[in-house]
Amino acid sequence: MFSENNIKSGCVEVICGSMFSGKTEELIRRLKRAQFANQKIAIFKPTIDTRYSDKEVVSHDLHSVTSTPIREPEEMLNLEPDVMEVGIDEAQFFGDSIVKVCQTLANRGLRVIIAGLDTDFKGKPFGPMPALMAIAEDVQKVHAICVKCGNLANHSHRLTASKKLVVLGEKDSYEPLCRQCYNAAIEAEQEAAKA
Ligand code: ZN
């Protein structure tokens, strides 16, 4: 089995789940551990994510680490030579070229840790995440708790009417739901739309 403690050469790790599942917290935990071991790290996020701060990966519980906002994944290839680990947050918002960039970094011997939403609010695989999961040495699915029934949640249910795919995760826009409660909520919305 893959173990975080056995990393000596390059690899790709994916941490994915719904909103409020603790993805970013897990990303930060892994990166901070590397930092304590005096490994130089670099963290990136898409410029589209401007919640709270322009310069930091900020998770919902406000544990944060400083990151660089970038537009294109290729910008990650110009790393300082002594960087050992690369973290990427909100990876679902990047284009498909992030897959090749992550492969290139891992082939250079770097540990690449990617956090992102596995599915969008419609329950469909989100952007480059399926491909990133396919090429990764390790994938960890993290879960929120369903706000309706307390089961493990793997859906980000949108509470607002906006149909735009990219709406950032404010607490009043989404709720984590389990499969059954998500399906029930979508059915109720479809019924309401017909009426
Ligand atoms: Zn539920």
Describe the structure.
- The chain is an alpha/beta fold.
- Helix content is 25%, strand content 27%.
- It is built from four helices and twelve strands.
- The strands form four sheets. A six-stranded parallel beta sheet has the order 5-2-6-7-1-8, with helices on both faces.
- Strand 9 and strand 10 form a beta hairpin.
- The longest helix is centred in the C-terminal third of the chain and has 16 residues.
- The chain is elongated.
- The mean pLDDT is 87.
- The structure holds zinc ion.
- Zinc ion (ZN) binds next to helix 4.
What would a concise description of this structure say?
Helix content is 25%, strand content 27%. The chain has helices at residues 23-36, 97-107, 129-135, 179-194, and strands at residues 11-17, 40-46, 56-58, 64-66, 68-70, 83-88, 111-117, 138-142, 144-145, 152-153, 155-158, 174-177. Residues 146, 148-149, 151, 177-178, 180-181 line the site of zinc ion (ZN).
Portion in helices? 10-25%
Distance between the termini: 52 Å
| Structural category | alpha/beta
What ranges have pLDDT less than 50 throughout 5 or more consecutive residues?
Answer: none
Which term fits the overall shape? elongated
Gyration radius, in Å: 17 Å
Keywords:
6-stranded parallel β-sheet; 4 helices; single chain; binds zinc ion; 195 residues; alpha/beta
